[in-house]
Design a protein that fits this description.
Belongs to the 3-oxoacid CoA-transferase subunit B family. The chain is built from four helices and twelve strands. The chain is α/β, with parallel strands linked by helices.
Amino acid sequence: MSSYQKRTKDELAARVAQDIHDGAYVNLGIGQPTAVANHIPKDREVILQSENGILGMGPAPAAGEEDYDLTNAGKQPVTLLAGGSFFHHADSFAMMRGGHLDICVLGAFQVAENGDLANWSTGEAGAIPAVGGAMDLAIGAKQTWVMMDLLTKKGESKIVKQCSYPLTGIGCVKRIYTDVATIEVTDQGLKLIDTVAGLDKAELEKMIGLSLL
């Protein structure tokens, strides 16, 4: 058994931010993905969009400087960069559905090897499932990236042969960023981009239960 250290939430957010190209229009989903805003390289212009009607968000505000009239779709206070704007919810969804976003970064319960995404319901009793704008983002963005822990609390892989949870989008995921590895979804199969130090490909394949290119 190899010895490796998982990426922290901030390290994972920084890893995602590293791959966002200059000039990209990006939506960061509720949950872990919102932290990506804090790690955009300072020499790179990335225009962040929120489905509740904001374009041009910056990093999270400093403690004590929060404005709760300025929040993202997850009700978290945000900042606005110079040139940022507000608009109607319907206009925001027109951006999302119309192919105007280069990248969306979403959390997930499961991602299938063909890029199917399940991120809105596990069917647990008492849960209040709501797909929200995820289905619009998953299909509307030019690229859908997923950011998540590789394993569930039970130690089961969230990357699967076929999703068992209700689908959000079909064949939409292009990249999977996890706490131990980065994987690309290709027509030929899942392609390993990188792993954390100390984790080799064979052990990662064993964790996932699928072969990697």
